[in-house]
Amino acid sequence: MKRYLLWLGLTALLAPAVQATQADQIKASHAWIRLLPADLPAGGYVTLDNQGSSAATLVSVHSAAYASAMLHQSTTDPAGNSDMHMLDRLIVPAHGQVSLAPAGYHLMLQQATHALKPGDTVDITLDFADGSHQRVPFQVRPANATD
Amino acid sequence: MKLSRFARLACLLVAGMLLAACQHEAATPWQLTDISGHMPDLAFQLTDDQGKTVTATDYQGKVALLYFGYTHCPDVCPLTLAHLHVVMQRLGKVADGAQILFVSVDPARDTPAALHAYATAFDPHVIGLTGSPADIEALTKRYRAAFSREPGKEGGSYDVSHSSGIYIFDAHGKARLLATPTDSQDKLVHDLHLLLSPGGAT
Protein backbone atom coordinates (compact mmCIF):
# COMPACT_ATOMS: atom_id res chain seq x y z
CA MET A 1 0.00 0.00 0.00
CA LYS A 2 2.77 2.39 0.98
CA ARG A 3 4.64 1.47 -2.16
CA TYR A 4 1.52 2.01 -4.28
CA LEU A 5 1.05 5.48 -2.85
CA LEU A 6 4.67 6.28 -3.56
CA TRP A 7 4.24 5.24 -7.17
CA LEU A 8 1.08 7.28 -7.43
CA GLY A 9 2.93 10.32 -6.09
CA LEU A 10 5.82 9.80 -8.46
CA THR A 11 3.63 9.49 -11.57
CA ALA A 12 1.69 12.58 -10.53
CA LEU A 13 4.98 14.45 -10.27
CA LEU A 14 6.31 13.19 -13.56
CA ALA A 15 3.14 13.52 -15.65
CA PRO A 16 3.31 17.27 -16.31
CA ALA A 17 6.90 16.88 -17.51
CA VAL A 18 5.85 14.50 -20.27
CA GLN A 19 4.90 16.73 -23.22
CA ALA A 20 1.86 15.58 -25.14
CA THR A 21 2.73 14.96 -28.78
CA GLN A 22 1.18 17.14 -31.47
CA ALA A 23 -0.84 14.15 -32.66
CA ASP A 24 -2.23 13.69 -29.12
CA GLN A 25 -3.43 17.29 -29.07
CA ILE A 26 -5.44 17.01 -32.27
CA LYS A 27 -9.02 15.85 -32.36
CA ALA A 28 -10.02 14.96 -35.92
CA SER A 29 -13.67 14.96 -36.96
CA HIS A 30 -15.93 15.06 -40.03
CA ALA A 31 -13.34 13.15 -42.10
CA TRP A 32 -14.55 12.24 -45.59
CA ILE A 33 -13.41 11.64 -49.15
CA ARG A 34 -15.25 12.75 -52.27
CA LEU A 35 -14.97 9.70 -54.52
CA LEU A 36 -14.71 10.44 -58.24
CA PRO A 37 -15.12 7.86 -61.02
CA ALA A 38 -12.29 6.15 -62.92
CA ASP A 39 -9.64 6.65 -60.23
CA LEU A 40 -9.56 10.40 -60.74
CA PRO A 41 -7.77 12.36 -57.97
CA ALA A 42 -10.09 12.65 -54.97
CA GLY A 43 -10.42 15.39 -52.35
CA GLY A 44 -10.10 14.49 -48.66
CA TYR A 45 -11.61 16.67 -45.93
CA VAL A 46 -11.32 16.75 -42.13
CA THR A 47 -11.76 19.20 -39.26
CA LEU A 48 -8.78 19.45 -36.92
CA ASP A 49 -9.23 20.77 -33.38
CA ASN A 50 -6.12 21.50 -31.39
CA GLN A 51 -6.95 20.94 -27.72
CA GLY A 52 -3.38 21.63 -26.62
CA SER A 53 -1.69 24.83 -25.49
CA SER A 54 0.89 24.76 -28.28
CA ALA A 55 0.56 24.76 -32.04
CA ALA A 56 0.49 21.50 -33.97
CA THR A 57 1.94 21.44 -37.48
CA LEU A 58 0.71 18.94 -40.03
CA VAL A 59 3.57 18.27 -42.46
CA SER A 60 2.27 15.37 -44.57
CA VAL A 61 -0.32 12.65 -44.84
CA HIS A 62 -0.09 9.06 -46.04
CA SER A 63 -2.38 6.13 -46.59
CA ALA A 64 -2.09 2.53 -47.69
CA ALA A 65 -5.18 3.18 -49.83
CA TYR A 66 -3.49 5.77 -52.08
CA ALA A 67 -0.10 5.80 -53.81
CA SER A 68 -0.01 9.56 -53.39
CA ALA A 69 -1.57 11.82 -50.76
CA MET A 70 -0.74 15.52 -50.56
CA LEU A 71 -1.76 18.60 -48.64
CA HIS A 72 -3.32 21.11 -51.02
CA GLN A 73 -5.07 24.43 -51.01
CA SER A 74 -7.56 25.80 -53.53
CA THR A 75 -7.70 29.54 -53.91
CA THR A 76 -10.02 31.75 -55.92
CA ASP A 77 -8.86 35.23 -56.92
CA PRO A 78 -11.25 38.20 -57.03
CA ALA A 79 -11.68 37.67 -60.78
CA GLY A 80 -13.12 34.23 -60.04
CA ASN A 81 -10.19 32.16 -61.27
CA SER A 82 -9.56 29.16 -59.11
CA ASP A 83 -6.22 27.58 -58.61
CA MET A 84 -4.68 24.76 -56.59
CA HIS A 85 -1.27 24.49 -54.97
CA MET A 86 0.63 22.15 -52.67
CA LEU A 87 1.31 23.03 -49.03
CA ASP A 88 4.52 22.17 -47.13
CA ARG A 89 2.78 22.45 -43.79
CA LEU A 90 -0.49 23.35 -42.18
CA ILE A 91 -0.41 24.88 -38.71
CA VAL A 92 -3.27 24.26 -36.29
CA PRO A 93 -2.90 27.00 -33.64
CA ALA A 94 -3.08 26.25 -29.91
CA HIS A 95 -6.74 25.85 -28.87
CA GLY A 96 -7.61 26.57 -32.51
CA GLN A 97 -9.36 24.82 -35.36
CA VAL A 98 -8.45 24.32 -39.00
CA SER A 99 -11.00 22.90 -41.41
CA LEU A 100 -10.00 21.06 -44.52
CA ALA A 101 -13.20 21.69 -46.46
CA PRO A 102 -14.23 22.02 -50.12
CA ALA A 103 -12.73 25.03 -51.97
CA GLY A 104 -10.01 25.53 -49.35
CA TYR A 105 -7.50 23.26 -47.65
CA HIS A 106 -7.87 19.65 -48.72
CA LEU A 107 -6.02 16.40 -49.21
CA MET A 108 -5.31 15.47 -52.82
CA LEU A 109 -5.54 11.68 -52.99
CA GLN A 110 -4.26 9.93 -56.10
CA GLN A 111 -3.95 6.40 -57.47
CA ALA A 112 -6.11 4.32 -55.17
CA THR A 113 -4.42 0.99 -54.41
CA HIS A 114 -7.77 -0.79 -54.55
CA ALA A 115 -11.20 0.11 -55.90
CA LEU A 116 -13.25 2.18 -53.44
CA LYS A 117 -16.98 2.72 -53.23
CA PRO A 118 -19.23 5.08 -51.27
CA GLY A 119 -19.74 3.79 -47.74
CA ASP A 120 -16.18 2.45 -47.43
CA THR A 121 -13.85 3.72 -44.73
CA VAL A 122 -10.25 4.62 -45.58
CA ASP A 123 -7.57 5.19 -42.95
CA ILE A 124 -5.34 8.19 -43.59
CA THR A 125 -2.43 8.97 -41.27
CA LEU A 126 -1.66 12.58 -40.38
CA ASP A 127 2.07 13.23 -39.87
CA PHE A 128 3.06 16.06 -37.53
CA ALA A 129 6.25 18.13 -37.29
CA ASP A 130 7.37 16.49 -34.02
CA GLY A 131 7.31 13.06 -35.67
CA SER A 132 4.01 12.01 -34.10
CA HIS A 133 1.20 10.49 -36.16
CA GLN A 134 -2.53 10.11 -35.96
CA ARG A 135 -4.51 7.60 -37.97
CA VAL A 136 -7.93 8.94 -38.96
CA PRO A 137 -10.78 6.94 -40.54
CA PHE A 138 -12.23 8.82 -43.54
CA GLN A 139 -15.70 8.04 -44.82
CA VAL A 140 -15.91 7.52 -48.60
CA ARG A 141 -18.81 9.54 -50.02
CA PRO A 142 -20.21 9.83 -53.58
CA ALA A 143 -19.05 12.48 -56.07
CA ASN A 144 -22.13 14.66 -55.55
CA ALA A 145 -22.00 14.69 -51.74
CA THR A 146 -22.16 18.11 -50.12
CA ASP A 147 -20.10 18.99 -47.07
CA MET B 1 -26.43 82.14 -50.53
CA LYS B 2 -26.37 81.42 -54.23
CA LEU B 3 -23.79 78.71 -53.67
CA SER B 4 -25.79 77.03 -50.91
CA ARG B 5 -28.85 77.02 -53.15
CA PHE B 6 -26.80 75.40 -55.84
CA ALA B 7 -25.47 72.88 -53.32
CA ARG B 8 -29.00 72.08 -52.17
CA LEU B 9 -30.09 71.58 -55.75
CA ALA B 10 -27.09 69.34 -56.41
CA CYS B 11 -27.93 67.29 -53.32
CA LEU B 12 -31.50 66.89 -54.46
CA LEU B 13 -30.34 65.80 -57.88
CA VAL B 14 -27.90 63.24 -56.48
CA ALA B 15 -30.53 61.96 -54.05
CA GLY B 16 -32.99 61.63 -56.91
CA MET B 17 -30.49 59.71 -58.97
CA LEU B 18 -29.70 57.39 -56.06
CA LEU B 19 -33.39 56.78 -55.48
CA ALA B 20 -33.87 55.98 -59.15
CA ALA B 21 -30.94 53.59 -59.00
CA CYS B 22 -32.44 51.89 -55.97
CA GLN B 23 -35.81 51.59 -57.65
CA HIS B 24 -34.15 50.18 -60.72
CA GLU B 25 -32.37 47.68 -58.47
CA ALA B 26 -35.64 46.64 -56.86
CA ALA B 27 -37.28 46.22 -60.26
CA THR B 28 -34.92 43.46 -61.37
CA PRO B 29 -36.15 40.07 -60.23
CA TRP B 30 -32.69 38.46 -60.33
CA GLN B 31 -30.55 37.58 -57.33
CA LEU B 32 -27.53 36.52 -59.40
CA THR B 33 -25.51 38.92 -61.56
CA ASP B 34 -27.57 40.02 -64.56
CA ILE B 35 -25.35 39.83 -67.67
CA SER B 36 -28.12 40.35 -70.25
CA GLY B 37 -26.67 42.28 -73.18
CA HIS B 38 -23.13 42.07 -71.79
CA MET B 39 -22.14 38.63 -73.01
CA PRO B 40 -22.61 37.05 -76.46
CA ASP B 41 -25.22 34.36 -77.20
CA LEU B 42 -24.28 30.74 -76.61
CA ALA B 43 -22.35 29.44 -79.63
CA PHE B 44 -19.87 26.58 -79.97
CA GLN B 45 -19.01 23.43 -81.86
CA LEU B 46 -17.71 20.72 -79.55
CA THR B 47 -17.91 16.96 -78.91
CA ASP B 48 -20.34 15.69 -76.29
CA ASP B 49 -19.63 12.91 -73.79
CA GLN B 50 -21.12 10.34 -76.20
CA GLY B 51 -18.58 11.33 -78.86
CA LYS B 52 -21.11 13.23 -80.97
CA THR B 53 -20.37 16.62 -82.56
CA VAL B 54 -22.72 19.19 -81.07
CA THR B 55 -23.41 22.90 -81.41
CA ALA B 56 -25.26 25.36 -79.21
CA THR B 57 -28.41 24.91 -81.31
CA ASP B 58 -28.64 21.31 -80.06
CA TYR B 59 -29.50 22.77 -76.64
CA GLN B 60 -31.96 25.42 -77.84
CA GLY B 61 -35.14 25.28 -75.82
CA LYS B 62 -33.19 24.48 -72.66
CA VAL B 63 -31.87 26.88 -70.04
CA ALA B 64 -28.14 26.20 -70.31
CA LEU B 65 -25.66 26.45 -67.43
CA LEU B 66 -22.15 26.73 -68.85
CA TYR B 67 -19.27 25.80 -66.57
CA PHE B 68 -15.59 25.34 -67.42
CA GLY B 69 -13.59 22.73 -65.54
CA TYR B 70 -11.66 19.50 -65.85
CA THR B 71 -11.97 16.04 -64.39
CA HIS B 72 -8.55 15.97 -62.67
CA CYS B 73 -9.79 18.76 -60.43
CA PRO B 74 -10.54 17.09 -57.09
CA ASP B 75 -11.83 20.05 -55.11
CA VAL B 76 -13.50 23.08 -56.71
CA CYS B 77 -15.08 21.48 -59.83
CA PRO B 78 -16.76 18.65 -57.90
CA LEU B 79 -17.96 21.13 -55.28
CA THR B 80 -19.62 23.27 -57.95
CA LEU B 81 -21.20 20.26 -59.66
CA ALA B 82 -22.38 18.83 -56.31
CA HIS B 83 -24.01 22.22 -55.55
CA LEU B 84 -25.68 22.23 -58.96
CA HIS B 85 -26.94 18.71 -58.26
CA VAL B 86 -28.64 19.96 -55.09
CA VAL B 87 -30.05 22.94 -57.02
CA MET B 88 -31.48 20.58 -59.67
CA GLN B 89 -33.04 18.41 -56.97
CA ARG B 90 -34.58 21.43 -55.30
CA LEU B 91 -36.02 22.62 -58.62
CA GLY B 92 -37.77 19.28 -59.00
CA LYS B 93 -39.65 18.66 -62.24
CA VAL B 94 -38.82 22.04 -63.83
CA ALA B 95 -35.11 21.12 -63.69
CA ASP B 96 -35.73 19.01 -66.79
CA GLY B 97 -35.82 22.27 -68.73
CA ALA B 98 -32.18 22.91 -67.75
CA GLN B 99 -28.94 21.52 -69.12
CA ILE B 100 -25.61 21.81 -67.33
CA LEU B 101 -22.77 22.01 -69.87
CA PHE B 102 -19.47 21.05 -68.26
CA VAL B 103 -16.83 22.14 -70.78
CA SER B 104 -13.40 20.61 -70.25
CA VAL B 105 -10.44 22.97 -70.43
CA ASP B 106 -8.20 19.90 -70.37
CA PRO B 107 -9.09 18.12 -73.65
CA ALA B 108 -5.79 16.18 -73.67
CA ARG B 109 -6.93 14.06 -70.71
CA ASP B 110 -10.70 14.50 -70.84
CA THR B 111 -11.91 12.06 -73.49
CA PRO B 112 -15.68 11.82 -74.11
CA ALA B 113 -15.72 8.53 -72.13
CA ALA B 114 -13.90 10.06 -69.13
CA LEU B 115 -16.25 13.04 -69.23
CA HIS B 116 -19.31 10.80 -69.42
CA ALA B 117 -18.32 8.87 -66.28
CA TYR B 118 -17.58 12.15 -64.52
CA ALA B 119 -20.76 13.99 -65.57
CA THR B 120 -23.11 11.13 -64.69
CA ALA B 121 -21.52 10.79 -61.23
CA PHE B 122 -23.02 14.18 -60.36
CA ASP B 123 -26.40 14.68 -61.95
CA PRO B 124 -28.41 13.45 -64.95
CA HIS B 125 -28.68 17.07 -66.19
CA VAL B 126 -24.90 17.34 -66.66
CA ILE B 127 -23.37 16.84 -70.11
CA GLY B 128 -19.61 16.85 -70.55
CA LEU B 129 -18.23 18.66 -73.59
CA THR B 130 -14.74 18.52 -75.03
CA GLY B 131 -13.14 19.43 -78.33
CA SER B 132 -10.03 20.73 -80.01
CA PRO B 133 -7.87 23.03 -77.89
CA ALA B 134 -8.60 25.83 -80.40
CA ASP B 135 -12.40 25.39 -80.19
CA ILE B 136 -12.31 25.30 -76.38
CA GLU B 137 -10.07 28.33 -76.19
CA ALA B 138 -12.41 30.19 -78.54
CA LEU B 139 -15.33 29.43 -76.22
CA THR B 140 -13.48 30.49 -73.05
CA LYS B 141 -12.39 33.70 -74.78
CA ARG B 142 -15.96 34.37 -75.90
CA TYR B 143 -16.99 34.49 -72.23
CA ARG B 144 -13.71 35.96 -70.98
CA ALA B 145 -13.15 32.87 -68.85
CA ALA B 146 -9.38 32.68 -68.60
CA PHE B 147 -7.64 29.38 -68.07
CA SER B 148 -4.05 28.27 -68.05
CA ARG B 149 -2.12 25.07 -67.62
CA GLU B 150 0.42 24.92 -64.83
CA PRO B 151 3.25 22.63 -65.83
CA GLY B 152 6.15 21.15 -63.90
CA LYS B 153 4.61 18.58 -61.62
CA GLU B 154 6.03 15.12 -61.17
CA GLY B 155 4.67 12.24 -63.23
CA GLY B 156 3.63 14.53 -66.08
CA SER B 157 0.56 15.64 -64.17
CA TYR B 158 -0.46 19.26 -64.11
CA ASP B 159 -3.10 21.54 -62.74
CA VAL B 160 -5.33 23.81 -64.73
CA SER B 161 -6.22 27.20 -63.38
CA HIS B 162 -9.68 28.15 -64.57
CA SER B 163 -12.56 30.54 -64.22
CA SER B 164 -15.12 29.25 -61.74
CA GLY B 165 -18.19 31.20 -62.86
CA ILE B 166 -21.41 29.58 -64.09
CA TYR B 167 -22.84 31.32 -67.18
CA ILE B 168 -26.59 30.94 -67.50
CA PHE B 169 -28.36 31.22 -70.87
CA ASP B 170 -32.10 31.29 -71.50
CA ALA B 171 -33.95 28.88 -73.79
CA HIS B 172 -33.10 31.13 -76.78
CA GLY B 173 -29.35 30.95 -76.06
CA LYS B 174 -29.20 34.53 -74.74
CA ALA B 175 -26.70 35.15 -71.92
CA ARG B 176 -28.73 36.12 -68.85
CA LEU B 177 -26.98 35.51 -65.53
CA LEU B 178 -23.61 34.83 -63.99
CA ALA B 179 -23.26 32.83 -60.77
CA THR B 180 -20.01 32.74 -58.83
CA PRO B 181 -19.02 29.92 -56.46
CA THR B 182 -19.88 32.14 -53.50
CA ASP B 183 -23.47 32.61 -54.66
CA SER B 184 -25.84 30.54 -52.54
CA GLN B 185 -27.93 27.63 -53.75
CA ASP B 186 -30.99 29.71 -52.77
CA LYS B 187 -30.07 32.38 -55.33
CA LEU B 188 -29.55 29.77 -58.05
CA VAL B 189 -32.83 28.04 -57.25
CA HIS B 190 -34.68 31.38 -57.20
CA ASP B 191 -33.32 32.64 -60.52
CA LEU B 192 -33.46 29.31 -62.34
CA HIS B 193 -37.04 28.89 -61.21
CA LEU B 194 -37.87 32.23 -62.81
CA LEU B 195 -36.00 31.43 -66.01
CA LEU B 196 -37.58 27.97 -66.26
CA SER B 197 -41.14 29.16 -65.59
CA PRO B 198 -43.42 29.65 -68.59
CA GLY B 199 -42.67 33.10 -69.91
CA GLY B 200 -39.67 33.40 -67.61
CA ALA B 201 -37.17 33.29 -70.42
CA THR B 202 -38.52 36.42 -72.09
From TrEMBL, chain A:
Superkingdom field: Bacteria
Keywords tagged on the record: Signal
Keyword Membrane assigned: no
Signal peptide stretch: 1-20
Gene3D superfamilies (alphabetical): PCu(A)C copper chaperone
Any one Pfam family match given in the protein's UniProt record, by short name: PCuAC
Protein name: Copper chaperone PCu(A)C
Annotated source species: Dyella nitratireducens
TrEMBL record, chain B:
InterPro entries according to UniProt: SCO1/SenC, Thioredoxin-like_sf, Thioredoxin_domain
Thioredoxin domain sequence ranges: 33-197
Record's keyword annotation contains Glycoprotein: no
Entry annotated with the keyword Transferase: no
UniProt superkingdom: Bacteria
Stretch forming the signal peptide: 1-26
Alphabetic keyword roster: Copper, Signal
Entry's family note: Belongs to the SCO1/2 family.
Name of the protein: Photosynthetic protein synthase I
Source species of the chain: Dyella nitratireducens
Source species taxonomy: Bacteria, Pseudomonadati, Pseudomonadota, Gammaproteobacteria, Lysobacterales
